[in-house]
Amino acid sequence: xxxxxxxxxxxxxxxxxxxxxxxxxxxxxxxxxxxxxxxxxxxxxxxxxxxxxxxxxxxxxxxxxxxxxxxxxxxxxxxxxxxxxxxxxxxxxxxxxxxxxxxxxxxxxxxxxxxxxxxxxxxxxxxxxxxxxxxxxxxxxxxxxxxxxxxxxxxxxxxxxxxxxxxxxxxxxxxxxxxxxxxxxxxxxxxxxxxxxxxxxxxxxxxxxxxxxxxxxxxxxxxxxxxxxxxxxxxxxxxxxxxxxxxxxxxxxxxxxxxxxxxxxxxxxxxxxxxxxxxxxxxxxxxxxxxxxxxxxxxxxxxxxxxxxxxxxxxxxxxxxxxxxxxxxxxxxxxxxxxxxxxxxxxxxxxxxxxxxxxxxxxxxxxxxxxxxxxxxxxxxxxxxxxxxxxxxxx
Length: 395
What we know:
One of its GO terms (molecular function) is transaminase activity. It catalyses: L-aspartate + 2-oxoglutarate = oxaloacetate + L-glutamate. By secondary structure, this protein is an alpha/beta fold. The protein has 2 domains: about 5-45 and about 290-395, Aspartate Aminotransferase, domain 1 (Alpha-Beta Complex), CATH 3.90.1150.10; about 65-285, Type I PLP-dependent aspartate aminotransferase-like (Major domain) (Aspartate Aminotransferase, domain 2), CATH 3.40.640.10. It contains 13 helices and 13 strands. It has helices spanning about 5-10, 20-30, 50-60, 70-85, 100-110, 130-135, 155-160, 185-195, 250-265, 270-280, 285-305, 335-345, 370-395, and strands spanning about 35, 95-100, 120-125, 140-145, 165-170, 200-205, 230-235, 245-250, 315, 320-325, 345-350, 350, 360-365. The strands form 3 sheets. Strands 2-8-7-6-5-3-4 form a 7-stranded mixed β-sheet, sandwiched between helices. The protein has a 4-stranded antiparallel β-sheet with strand order 9-10-13-12. Strand 3 (about 120-125), helix 6 (about 130-135) and strand 4 form a beta-alpha-beta unit.
């Protein structure tokens, strides 16, 4: 029996670039001691206060079908939060609650892409981006943001790729690079979107993890609210990755159609999870800062360690829970280096090539293990890179 091309071509065929991650997981399952610095999973669990709110809601009976668009309480809470942070008037009818940020990404592309349309995304990219675009039947087209441009988007590159495109997907603070897009970069992106009549899909799930500079939502730029869909999530800001609660914020007409989509697909998010999310979002910045604190602290540790050597380069670590490290001085690709590091020291990192061509010769390090273990792993990584660089120079 034939399967649809939409489902069989989601990954584009071949490896998805995550072979090192899968190998590390196999080693762990075999009982080997691997320091895993791969995926963006908090090493602390959801805060007990959020779990208590979730339990109270469930025990009080909010375990049946919840409203498909999201509860009025959570939609109002998200709208108020977005309006406070951006200054853009935002109301309940501008918000759809989704089962996590990934479902929000899919829904946003379903809203604006017809089969055969081109959806643009920036490279380096979060692993699911091209598959999400393919999954709605669109053509995924990468736009390079090279290391030489500090991984900041450039208007001329987007414009050159925009023929036939209907949407552009961006992510700031950025996974995998840790770069926060500047106001100048986002202004240039907005200008291209308006000139080329593109929908802008802005993934802002790391907006509470900004270490340098400030987060700017492009929805707040002039004449952009009408063509921007913002994706948000409880996963990173409140360590609720498994609770699967996210949202899309956009024009009321778009949200009305996405509610119809949700009725025919996910049919909403559990009410007790939404109630816990409402509690978390109104618990104050202290809770968000508590959850972000380990990554801020480990970034500082990493900067001190990396400053003591000159082989491994650090891409400006402005936000999110990752470091993007330049290991080109070793003469190796990111993939080769990551595999060699795993073999030699049982330290697992992600090759830059896992996230696209623009990150070749780099590795991504997730700051997701305890401070001391993280520092030891990073020092070992630097020593290993120095050894490889000396060997490369001698050849």
